[in-house]
């Protein structure tokens, strides 16, 4: 089955779905005060004509097209259109700054830049001197800004100049001449360390990954996926967008991160992918409101039809996964990275084990190197890093992708134990995986986030973000007198309480892994502060810079 699909392209996969489903509902998108439905046929027509518009704007096969936009219907249409025009989609996170976006535009050698509207255009207008003069700019929404001296046209105006026949002709060419080995996208790594690198993924990388994952799932035509993670990230791109095209059913775009639960109530989805932080917040909400033990509370919160949720992008706390599953909603972990398109392994609704990231997907190889690093080989492994042959050679050796993650396999299930590149090496020579300790700490209801520090130091320290409502409740319960909320972060009774909690969570780890000192910080680590990536991974170097005085104080410097 998988061998037959190795010649698939995103265009051929999409065309098969359109031919099969036609006028059936494909997509739900919020318009005004309600969710509108869009059929497969309508979406195909919009994508074809947009492809014709791209060609009118000068896009040729192999040209890179930048898209800087929040999730919306036009994002999906443009993605499909770029593939139909045989271009290469460089999807940029909408939360990046102007200089960060400019870096990707210049580095990728983009021919065309598409922005969602004025908010994104303003970022680029401010860094116009960094951008080449020969790039065209268009937008989904009207923009009055100028970028590097260029006016920003409306993409819809160019689409209006095309015909259905123009789009059909391009689609026919893409089906006849497009190859599965053609590059489909360049996605820049989130840059937790160093400069972002452009990951080159082919059509085969992406379509194979979808088909391989779907081998383990039983889909129903009535299934509805709710998508809220940024489509510019590979997790949502493959596991929501392309998996939906490959497997059928319906997809809905959440309005925002803040409306996920409300959208669940309205749409009643059956599948939801997310980052652990979201699932942890749902669990904490139910606990804090005395609803955690109420039968059906979780299912009701998620709309009443939820079959399975999948966490990815970071470690999923065991107690959260256990709570969801015991409450009747299977919450499983998947594992992968941008360089593997992304899925390497995943739990499924009927086959998952707590504390693991499931079994490797069909048709790939996974092994553990002598130093514990996870290696993988197969059609899901990237073509390489854009214009970085040495980095590519260092990462892919003899066909094996070196993930940089540490783990082991037990009874066929893959367990992640840490990040090789993030290993803390103490002054005493002890190798410590901070993500493992952080996962233990954030299991405590009083700890929302934690960053463990200690590289080249004699002992470990931590920056702790308190869970505000839980802390407030505990302060009231213990009758701790405070003159202001800020005083809670340094009050001896509060610090003693956190010391007890931290020591309890780390009872079963070695002496070298104990937290000797900690600092309670007044706010959470966020995307806006630059302390987290768009996929909610901590940028340790940024956090350590922002909190340098506090860290120095914990080490007596």
Could you characterize the architecture of this molecule?
The chain has 557 residues and is an alpha/beta fold. The protein is built from 19 helices and 29 strands. Among the domains are: 3-205, 3-Layer(aba) Sandwich (Rossmann fold); 423-554, GMP Synthetase, Chain A, domain 3, CATH 3.30.300.30. Helix 2 (40-56) crosses helix 3, helix 4 (98-108) crosses helix 5 and helix 8 crosses helix 9. Helices cover 35% and strands 24% of the residues. Strands 2-1-13-12-14-15-16-17-18 form a nine-stranded mixed β-sheet, with helices on both faces. It has an eight-stranded mixed β-sheet with strand order 9-6-5-3-4-10-11-21, sandwiched between helices.
State the gist of this model.
The protein is of the alpha/beta class. The protein has 19 helices and 29 strands.
Distance, first to last CA: 61 Å
CATH class of the domain at 3-205: Alpha Beta
Biggest sheet details: 9 strands, mixed
CATH architecture of the domain at 3-205: 3-Layer(aba) Sandwich
What oligomeric state is this? single chain
As a whole number of angstroms, the C-alpha radius of gyration is: 24 Å
Shape: globular
By secondary-structure content and strand pairing, the structural class works out as: alpha/beta
- Fold-level CATH name of the domain at 3-205: Rossmann fold
Order of strands, main sheet, comes to: 2-1-13-12-14-15-16-17-18
CATH homologous superfamily annotation of the domain at 3-205: ANL, N-terminal domain
Mean pLDDT level: 94
Portion in strands: 15-25%
Total number of helical segments? 19
Helical residue percent? Answer: 25-40%
Overall number of strands: 29
- Poorly predicted regions: none
């Amino acid at each position: 089955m998988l061998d037959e699909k190795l010649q698939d392209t995103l265009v051929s996969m999409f065309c098969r779905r359109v031919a099969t489903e036609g006028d059936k509902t494909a997509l739900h998108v919020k318009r005004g005060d309600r969710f509108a439905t869009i059929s497969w046929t309508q979406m195909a027509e919009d994508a074809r004509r947009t492809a014709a518009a791209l060609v009118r704007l000068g896009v040729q096969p192999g040209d890179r097209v930048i898209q800087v936009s929040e999730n919306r219907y036009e994002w999906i249409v443009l993605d499909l259109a770029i593939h139909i025009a045989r271009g290469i989609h460089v999807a940029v996170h909408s939360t990046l700054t102007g200089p960060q976006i400019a870096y990707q535009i210049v580095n990728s050698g983009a021919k065309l830049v598409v922005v969602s509207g004025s908010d994104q255009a303003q970022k680029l207008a401010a860094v116009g001197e960094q951008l080449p003069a020969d790039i065209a700019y268009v937008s989904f929404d009207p923009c009055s800004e100028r970028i590097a001296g260029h006016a920003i046209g409306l993409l819809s105006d160019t689409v209006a100049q095309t015909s259905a026949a123009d789009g059909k002709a391009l689609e026919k060419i893409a089906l006849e001449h497009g190859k599965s080995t053609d590059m489909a996208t360049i996605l820049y790594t989130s840059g937790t360390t160093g400069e972002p690198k452009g990951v080159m993924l082919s059509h085969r990388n992406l379509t194979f990954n979808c088909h391989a994952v779907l081998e383990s799932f039983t889909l129903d035509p009535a299934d509805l996926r709710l998508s809220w993670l940024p489509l510019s990230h590979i997790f949502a791109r493959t596991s929501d967008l392309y998996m939906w095209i490959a497997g059928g059913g319906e997809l809905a775009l959440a309005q925002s991160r803040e409306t996920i639960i409300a959208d669940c109530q309205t749409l009643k989805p059956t599948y939801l992918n997310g980052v652990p932080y979201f699932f942890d917040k749902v669990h904490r909400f139910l606990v804090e409101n005395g609803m955690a033990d109420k039968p059906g509370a979780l299912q009701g919160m998620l709309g009443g039809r939820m079959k399975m949720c999948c966490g990815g992008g970071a470690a999923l706390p065991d107690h959260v996964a256990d709570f969801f599953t015991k409450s009747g909603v299977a919450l499983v972990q998947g594992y992968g990275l941008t360089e593997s398109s992304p899925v390497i392994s995943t739990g499924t609704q009927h086959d998952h084990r707590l504390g693991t990231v499931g079994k490797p997907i069909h048709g790939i190889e996974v092994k553990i190197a002598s130093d514990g690093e996870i290696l993988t080989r197969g059609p899901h492994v990237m073509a390489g890093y854009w214009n970085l042959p040495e980095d590519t050679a260092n990462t892919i050796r003899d066909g094996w992708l070196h993930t940089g993650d540490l783990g082991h396999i037990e009874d066929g299930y893959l367990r992640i134990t840490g990040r090789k590149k993030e290993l803390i090496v103490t002054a005493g020579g002890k190798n410590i995986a901070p993500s493992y300790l952080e996962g233990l700490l954030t299991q405590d209801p009083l700890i929302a986030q934690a960053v463990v520090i200690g590289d080249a130091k004699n002992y470990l320290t931590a920056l702790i973000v308190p869970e505000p409502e839980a802390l407030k409740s505990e302060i009231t319960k213990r009758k701790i007198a405070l003159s202001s909320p800020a005083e809670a972060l340094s009050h001896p009774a509060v610090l003693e309480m956190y010391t007890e909690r931290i020591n309890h969570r780390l009872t079963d780890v070695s002496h070298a892994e104990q937290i000797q000192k900690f600092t309670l910080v007044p706010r959470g680590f966020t995307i806006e502060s630059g302390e987290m990536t768009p996929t909610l991974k901590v940028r340790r170097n940024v956090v350590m810079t922002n909190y340098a005085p506090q860290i120095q104080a914990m080490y007596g410097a």
